[in-house]
Amino acid sequence: MRTTTADAAPHRAASAVALTVGKITGGAFSLVADPLALRGMSDKTGSVLTPTSTYRLQITSQQDLFRAAELVPYLKRLGADWVYLSPILRATSGSDHGYDVTDPTEIDPERGGADGLTALSKAAHDAAMGVVVDIVPNHQGVAVPRENPWWWSLLTDGKNSPHADSFDVDWAAGNGKIVIPVLGDGDEDLSALTVEDGTLRYYENVYPLAEGTYQDGDSPQGVHAKQNYELVNWRRGDSELNYRRFFTVTTLAGVRVEDQKVFDDSHVEVRRWFDEKLVDGLRIDHPDGVRDPEDYLAKLADVTGGAWTTVEKILEPGETLPRQWKTAGTTGYDSLGWIDRVLTNPEGHYELASLDTKLREGDPVRWEELIHGTKRRMADVGLSAEVHRVVRDLPGDFGHSDEQAYDGLAEILAHFPVYRTYLPFGVDYQREAVAAAKQARPELSAVLDDLAQVLGDAAASAEELTEAAQRFQQTSGMVMAKGVEDTAFYRFSKLTSLTEVGGDPSVFSLTPAEFHELAAERQRESPDTMNALTTHDTKRSASVRARITVLSESAKAWSEVLATLFPRAREAGIAITDGPAVNLVLQAIVGAWPLERERAVDYAMKAVREASVSTAWVDGDEEFEEQLTRLIDFVFTNPRARGIVEGFVERATAPGWSNALAATALQLTLPGVPDVYQGQELWEPSLVDPDNRRPVDFELRAELLTDLDAGLPGTAGGSPAVDDTGAARMLLTSRALRLRREHPELFTGYEPLGLTGTLSDHALGFDRGGAATVVTRFPVGLARAGGWTDETVNLADGEWEDILTRRTFTSTGGVKLAELLDTYPVALLRRKDR
Questions:
Q1: How far is CA 21 from the centre of its chain?
Q2: Alpha carbons 198 and 221: distance in angstroms, whole number
Q3: In angstroms, what CA-CA distances link 766 with 473, 731, 762, 797, 813?
Q4: Which tens digits make up the pLDDT trace of 465-493?
Q5: Angle between helices 542-549 and 639-669 (to 10 degrees)
Q6: Which pTM value belongs to this model?
Q7: One-character DSSP codes across 283-341
Q8: What is the pLDDT of residues 530-551, one digit of tens each?
């Protein structure tokens, strides 16, 4: 539940008293046990307890809940306030992510089971830490039907199953059956069916038999015809599927949590967590998929007692969450975008745009045109079944043909400016989409006008929405996610640090004033929302993006890299037929260097298949993929080519570290609750999943933290160099998290810090109410100009301690940046009189 800014300060202060766990003394951290370990949802005043930070752990069979419990002492020393777990409900066997829940009524035994959560919860609460868990209300995993009891029941008994209302099935569209697109190509593929042990089998796929549908001697094909499901060619799924799914994944079936019984049944285990005080908060995956997020969050608040809850909601620039939602805010992809862009030099835009246009043979890319095309393609192909279902839900007297209705709906979806509406909230976005569709396709004006009315243009409340309107809202987010995040982002390679989840690549950079305005608004409107920098969903980790951001200051040098590398590759007999794709892949390689050749190839294949320009996941171009793989091998093995790449990396590494430290400092101290993704207290350069889910060496991190805490400020041990060990980032992360946890009263406001001097544009700073952050921007240009000279940051008069170096600075009208930032490119300051 939201709290106002005025309410936030006292309840955080109260939490600080109750949850004080240690103090920093001379650079060392000493743990002080507190008997008031976190146990409930609110403090004595009734305020919702809010973490000062979270640390995300990916819970798998290799890193299960028992292992998470063992990590609590380290996370506590690091400064994390709450432990943040990936999904832990029973998932498909072998799942490395847990978002394919197969049984919402129990914790996954592979991930530690109920005993594992009990152990983790006890360890966290005994350390005065909270526990927040990621849950997945929108869908369930059905890849292995017999692992999902609800789905197995549905396939067995069809509309007579007790779970017939649990899944979002259009029975009429499947002639009373569930369409399962699993058969291979070929007219005779049903010949591979067999009946074994009372089940119907198609190779390794196993399906149930309805009672009385099989006798010895019956043909498998005849038995199949009697079932409540129909196995069809896998290619038919995108156009003929008759159950709602997660995006284009047919093995993730949509769940109808809008039904009270389905909600209750699917949250029985979640309810137990709160009844038994095992868990203290929730992160909600993909709320845009459920029919009515506001209603869902209200019901969920009843289950949790109003616990701190965030939603994985992607906000477009200028978009806000509905105020009536019972949530603290989003998972923070919006602030990730602000941070990256305020560190991006706008002066690099022209050169990078010119390079991109050259790689496209003189045809400049226009973002709005690009995403219209990718979204329209997704509506017509990948998500055609979903659009067809909206057509079927239109009133019988709609007055236009199904073909016209489909065309109109797809055009509205292609022009939709946000993920979805929550009508009547957001109706202006829908009107904007309809108007844009009419301008682009004037011949569809009549059908578009009528669609606007059916889709809720004049609805005064959610209760007035038609079935088609409600389903359209669930569909628009699918088209946006698949058309933009998973397609256009892989086609737009001008500067790939901008193509991150929740970002708008057409916004190349932000000024400090724009950044401060957004941050101040967050302090006013949603101070308890989450702030992310790297997540399990980001396409590149923060340190990779930070190095790629250097291209905005070294655009000509990057152009020269490609101008040199491309001819050499062609001389080696390698065909380069998709310049933008190669640019994207090379930026990833440079950003993550050094990396293994296999990781680079895996990333490249996923990227170009998602882009669907020169190859694709389905019916891809093997020759193109072979040539791209040869290019990567060329970069890794040819001395001259490798030298070109490593030469640029050498120039970009130090400024990349500076950018990464700046981004980390901003994220950890902005208004909101900072989340540290596992391993990211060091550089940990990772690419898109599954690369970002690789095992983390926590023993290394624990030893490094111990050394930092034992070291004396000003020595190599206590003030490590900014180098490839990442110790400087560990120092910054631990000191910032500890300061937030132990002194939340210093983080209750937001005031931009004034900067003066010739190179003042190379710095950014703000005061949170006694804790101030100052970071370096555009480090390449700063070095080129000779470094800091007379620049000053206007800190309030008094003594300030930089908690990174333990030095004290006395401000009488300001502090010189040449002194403040002589050790690190960032400073985190605390007023000594507070």
A1: 31
A2: 15
A3: 39, 20, 14, 15, 15
A4: 999 999 999 999 999 999 999 999 999 99
A5: 110
A6: 0.93
A7: EES-GGGSS-HHHHHHHHHHHHTS-EEEE--PPPTT----TTSSSSEE-SHHHHHHHHH
A8: 999 999 999 999 999 999 999 9
